[in-house]
Amino acid sequence: MKLSPFKIGLFSTSLLIGATAPGIAADFTRISSAEDFYTYYGNDFSAEAKAFVEDLYSYLTPYFGPNGRAQAAADGFVPMTPEAKFHGTHWFKPEQVYNFVAEPTRPAGLNFDQENKLVAVYWGETKYDAIEQAVQSFSTLPPENLPALYTAYKEANVRSLPTILAPFGDLAAWHSHENVVIENVGAIDPSTGFYDAEAINFRQSLLDEAFIAEIFAALQDPQKVAAPFEVNPDTYPPFNLGIHPGFYMAHLWIGAGNPDGPFNTTHAAVSPNGLRRAHHV
Questions:
Q1: Which residue, 178, 65, 58, 47, is CA-closest to 117?
Q2: Which residues pair with 233 in a beta bridge?
Q3: How far, in Å, CA of 111 to CA of 64, rounded?
Q4: What would the pLDDT profile of 197-207 be if each residue is shown by its tens digit?
Q5: Contact, 55 vs 105, CB < 8 A?
Q6: What average pLDDT score do residues 57-61 get?
Q7: Do the Cβ atoms of 279 and 175 come closer than 8 Å?
Q8: Which of 127 and 234 is assigned the larger pLDDT?
Q9: Could you give the angle at the alpha carbon of 99 between the alpha carbons of 97 and 103, nearest 5°?
């Protein structure tokens, strides 16, 4: 029997299409410490921002180096996208789907590049309140009324941007993603026994009517367990499908110096032959 909606939350990244290939640009600069960070980006940060950076590097130490991705997997991170052009592969801890609030020095996810090395972190936070209550109420209404009601729900329940990156002032940049569907969460490659990021199908910016249809179809499909609408949060893996109306996201290039700035959304030297990203909403 399918479960009832449970709690809100799930983040993701860009819509992806294309083909992958390895390669690092000659001018690519790896960084792996606060000292490296200041050397590359400059030392003109507030004391609060520096404390943020130093605590973040302390937390991330296990994920740098050639074994960083394996350590991330051992610590409970799983891939959430295939290798994405100018992003790398996004990893996150699935249990965070139930507590989808950005925390300053505990980012929601990690980005690994085409050499499987840590290049960035990212934060996510749900953009809309009361998601599960809205879906429960929609389930009793005529289908033809749902797209308009869903649009009205989103307009009435928008949260403010997260404030955790305030120590960086205007340097920090948030963007958002809308109507996201992520299939095959936690997929394993049977030939290696390791996570198979390329098996993940990520879609976003669905039309409201199509997005609502995806939710109700998933709730009726015994092969799909859809977070955040039906799962037990006490154990993982409880879900293989992520569906979310919208979330805020911010990146920080903490493992690869970014000439366009530490909070730029993309990095031109990271996975340049990865899957092409769509426009951020």
A1: 65
A2: none
A3: 11
A4: 999 998 999 99
A5: yes
A6: 96
A7: no
A8: 127
A9: 110
CB 29 within 8 A of CB 96: no
Of 118, 114, 117, 120, nearest to 20 by C-alpha is 114
- The pair of structure tokens assigned to 7 is 């709690």
Whether the CB-CB separation of 12 and 242 falls below 8 Å is answered with yes
Question: What is the token pair recorded at 67?
Answer: 């074994």
Structure tokens at 245: 């109306």
Q: At 184, which amino acid appears?
A: N
Tokens encoding 57? 């590097």
Place of tokens 């950076």: 53
Q: How far apart are CA 98 and CA 250, in angstroms?
A: 19
Q: Which residues pair with 247 in a beta bridge?
A: 126, 177
Q: Both tokens of residue 141? A: 């209404």
Q: Pairing relation of β-strands 226-227 and 241-252?
A: parallel
Q: Is 60 left (phi over 0), alpha (psi -120 to 50) or beta?
A: alpha
Instruction: Classify 240 in phi/psi space as left (phi over 0), alpha (psi -120 to 50) or beta.
Output: alpha
Cβ contacts of 45 within 8 Å, gap of 6 or more: 38, 53, 167, 168
Strands 78-79 and 89-92: antiparallel
Look up the pTM and report it.
0.84
Contact 61, 54 (CB under 8 A): no
- The single residue listed with the structure tokens 């993701």 is 12
Both tokens of 6, joined, read 């449970």
Radius of gyration of the chain (CA): 19
- Please name the residue ranges forming H helices in the chain: 34-41, 47-60, 68-74, 131-138, 146-156, 208-220
Nearest to 274 by CA among 80, 28, 89, 120: 89
